[in-house]
Each structure stands twice: as structure tokens, then as C-alpha cells.
Amino acid sequence: MPKYAMVIDQRRCVACMACVVSCKKENEVPPEHFRTRVLEMVEGEFPKLRMELRSELCNHCDNPPCVANCPTGASYKREEDGLVLLKKYRCVGCKACLAACPYDARYINPDKGFADKCTFCEHRIKEGKEPACVATCIGKSRIFGDMDDAKSPVRVALQGAHAEVLLKHAGTQPRVYYIKKFSKPE
Amino acid sequence: MELTVTGTNAITSPFLHAWDWRVALYLFLGGMAAGLAVMSSILRLKNAGKSAEGESASFWGPLWVPIILSFGMLFIFWDLDRKLNVYWLYLTFKPFSPMSWGSWGLLLFFPVCALNALVTMPGEYRHWLRFDVLRTLVDRLQPHKRLLAILNFVFGIFVGLYTGVLLSAFVARPFWHSALLPLLCLVSALTAGAAFMAIIAKRKAVKLFFTKVNVSIVIAELIVMVLFSIGLATSQGGAVMPSFSFILEYLLYGMAIALVAKLLLVTDERSDALPDRAVLLMQVSAAMVLAGGLMFRISLVYAGQLSHLV
User: Fold this and answer.
1) Quick check: A165 pLDDT over 70?
2) Chain B interface residues (partner A, CB cutoff 8 A)
3) Nearest C-alpha in B relative to A115
4) In the predicted model, is pLDDT for residue B215 greater than 80?
5) Disulfide check for B163: which of A147, B185, B250, B296 has CB 3.0–4.6 Å away?
């Protein structure tokens, strides 16, 4: 059983937004809606400035609050690979998952009304491909793979690197890891 | 810090605004129906039912419960983006989803409060029941009047608490994520119920009783609200405090208490000799409590969405 995860190596991100565009194209995300985003944060005062580029998407949490709060079982965590997915036919559009997600990863599909989100491109994974955002990432900032496979790109990337998750204190146990420091952990 | 985000969704950025006034009204009306169920049951059960004798509110109170609840449910239904899928709420039970508990709870509460309204119907209104089956049902339930009143009370407490649990379950929204919120919503629901009873009661003594009940609960609510605010100020939920406060509700409740303060000195609840001015004060203060309750729910729904875990 694979345990899919993603690593965002922020050291390699150039904020080209190719991931945002490829995601929209691959998943036919409606206009003005997004499954992934890129944050450009500038801190400090000139000339001492610091910029952080960070891609954000659904964290496919191991303890997903959107799944716990969904009253119809439309949002679920797939047992075989741990992806957090949506049974669209069961979604009632109550927006409890939107309120529950600390990462603001969901939106309401304006045409169909369901609470849509990133699926790690599970339709591509099925075909043995990487998610569209990973495949298109020119800086190899987005890395995808199976956490249970010691040779997978995500395990290799995480080896000996400072990896963090977003909002760790929320207790959601995210599966998207961020590397932003060059030094090795002590 | 300068922040540029490419790929934001309007519904979550810069703040969540998934729920609007429809949800606020649902919570207010649901809470008021719950409070009314509790208060009308108290009237029925108090003094072994003697307090309810000759008081029209002992019938109109229970009758308003399913009506107000229906309107509340209508608003939450209106808010759903995929209305035709609503049946899935009743093909699923999710123990960790407050909304699932609420859906099932309301499904049970509705027939209980409707039956309670039917059995409290006085003889002169029995002709409203057009179908024989209803008349037979009411006759058969007459011996269980007390049980229905107790069930109505219990479900009222459950629904009153639920209106707060629904919001407090979201760890992502620090403003809502407080164990005190269900309690705050319960007392808010009870004040609305008592205020409604005070408004519709015919007898002055019953009006005075519910006004006194209301003042006690409003004081309790203000205490819980202060504790809730302290909790917010010392947590991440406090981040939205500068742009939000319960000031208006404090003002309305404070004025409502001030209006009826003198009436609190009246100790004889059997007295129907209160002057008309006192009745007017009770009506106005009850209306202000209802307005305060509505303000509270609207503020709660919007402020919670402004808060974000960081």
C-alpha cells in the first residue's frame, strides 16, 4: 500500500506559477478558482530583505478535519493510499469542510456546487504518472512519491533536510512537507 | 510583510466567507425554537401544570416551536449548494461531525415538538385538526402529555447546545474553537425562548415569571460572554477582537435588564395586578433580548470566519 506525500523544496521554487496553470488545465478548474496557490512573502526593510516563496495545496492530512466534519461522508480518506478525496455525488454543499480546513484548500465549484480540492491528480497516479504540478515544475521544487518506499523521490528529498509541515499544532498530520533551509538538521 | 498570492479562491481569501446571514438566521431561529421548547415545557411542568391553566401561551408556545424550527431549517436548506443531495444527510451518520448530529437531532426533535404542540391544543382549536387520524393520535397521546413535555425540554437543551457545538468543532477557526461556545449558545437560546414566551403570554403573572427567568439567564449569559471573551483575548481567536466585539449585544441586554429592574422586586408571581406600563416594559425588554440574540448570532457567524489559525 503506497503512502503518497509531496515535498515542496522551497529552495528551488522560482514562483513561475507553472504549477498553478498546469493544475487548472489538468483538472479543468473553473475560472477564478484554484486548487493550488503560490505565496510570495517579502519581509524586512530595504536593503535587508528576505523573500519566501511557498506553494500551498491540500495537505492530504492523516487526521483530516474536513473528513471528520463532513456530515454525509462525501469527503473521505482513501484507505489504500491515504489520499483525501471527495465522493461528489454525496456532497451536499454545506461548506463544513471549507470551515474545517486550516489550510483553506477547498472551494465550491461554481458550476456543480460541490466542495472541490486537490486530489494529488489521482487520475494520473493511477496511470503511473506524477501529479500535473509536479510534472511541470521546472525547478523540481515539487516532489511526489510514496513515503513507504525508501527509494522514492520524497524520501530521498527529506533525507537529511529540515522538513516542516504547515500548522503542525493543528494536529492534522499533513502529508505535504516543506524544505526551506539549506543546513542539515542538528 | 508584503504578501502576494497567486491562485486565491474568493471564498477563502482573504477571509473565509462560506456562510452568510442564512446560517446566522438558522442558528438564531434554531436556538429560539430550542429555547421556546424548554420554556414552554417549564410552563407545562411547573406546579404540576397549574401554571399553564388558562394561559394561552401554554398552547401557542409549543405551537410556535415547530413553526420557527421550520423557518430555521428552510434557511439552512437555502444555504446548501447541492440541495438535491440533502437525503445523504439521512443515509449517513458521522459521529465526529456536529452537522451530522444536528441533522439527525432535528429529525427527531421536529416530530417531538410537533406532537407536543398537538397534545397541548385546547378544545376550542380542535377543529383545526382536519384529519381523523390526527384527532385519534392526539387522543391517544393525551396520557403522555408530561412525557412529551419532558422530551421537548431535553431536545430543546440538545438543539440549543448543538447551535454552538456546530461552530466550536472547527479547530481552523480559533474564534469559534472554544468549549464555552456551546454553553454561550445554549444560554442565548434560552433567553430568546424566555423572551418569546414573555411576549406571547396573556396573563401578567406568566409574563412576569418569564421576564424574571429571562433576567437570570441574561445575567448568566453576560458572565459566560465575559469568560468567552477572556478566552479569546488569551488565544489566537483574539486576533479578530479589535474589529469585533459584543458591545451592541451588551448594550441591548443591559438596557433590557435596566427596563425590568424594578419589576424584579415584585415577588408575588400570582399577582395579575401589574400596571399596563409594567407590561409594556416587559414586552419591550423581551423584544430587545430577541434583537440582542439575533445580533449575537450574526456577529458570531461572521467574526468566526474572520479568524484563522496561524
Assistant:
1) yes
2) 1-13, 16, 18-19, 79-83, 85-86, 88-89, 91-92, 94, 96-100, 102-103, 169-173, 305, 308-310
3) B81
4) yes
5) B185
Q: Work out the pLDDT band at B239, boundaries 50, 70, 90.
A: low
Q: Residue A38 is placed in which grid cell?
A: 503560490
Contacts made by residues A128-133, CB under 8 angstroms, sequence distance 24+:
A131/A6, A132/A22, A132/A23, A132/A25, A132/A26, A132/A27, A133/A18, A133/A19, A133/A20, A133/A22, A133/A23, A133/A36, A133/A55, A133/A57
In the block, cell 529540515 appears at A162
Task: State whether residue A36 sits within 8 Å of chain B by CB.
Answer: yes
Interface confidence (ipTM) of the complex: 0.91
DSSP collapsed to 3 states, chain B: CEEEEECCCCCCCCCCCCCCHHHHHHHHHHHHHHHHHHHHHHHHHHHHHHHHCCCCHHHHHHHHHHHHHHHHHHHHHHHCCCHHHHHHHHCCCCCCCHHHHHHHHHHHHHHHHHHHHHHCCCHHHHHHCCCHHHHHHHHHHHHHHHHHHHHHHHHHHHHHHHHHHHHHCCCCCCCCCCCCHHHHHHHHHHHHHHHHHHHHCCCHHHHHHHHHHHHHHHHHHHHHHHHHHHHHHCCHHHHHHHHCCCHHHHHHHHHHHHHHCHHHHCCCCCCCCCCHHHHHHHHHHHHHHHHHHHHHHHHHHHHHHHCCCC
Task: Name the DSSP class of A88.
Answer: G
Residues B241 and B204 sit within 8 Å (Cβ to Cβ): no
Helix B276-306 × helix B181-200 angle, to 10°: 150
* A3, B23, B30, B137, B183 from B190: Cα distances, Å: 49, 19, 11, 30, 11
| Cα–Cα dist A164/B164, whole Å | 34
Q: Which domains does chain A have, with CATH numbers?
A: 4-179 (3.30.70.20)
Q: Which three cell numbers stand for residue A131?
A: 501529479
Chains A & B: contacts with CB separation below 8 Å: 139
Q: Which residue from A112, A115, A103 is spatially nearest to A174, judged by alpha carbons?
A: A103
Determine the Cα–Cα distance for residues B245 and B232; give it in Å rounded to an integer.
Answer: 11
Output the pLDDT for position A119. Answer: 97
Q: Say if residue B33's pLDDT is above 70.
A: yes
The bridge status of strand A176-179 relative to strand A4-9 is parallel
Q: Choose among B14, B236, B172: nearest CA to A167.
A: B172
Q: Residue A114: list chain B partners with CB under 8 A.
A: 81-82
**Which of B85, B92, B306 to mutate to test binding with chain A, by most A CBs within 10 Å of its CB?**
B85
Residue B85, min C-alpha distance to chain A (Å): 5
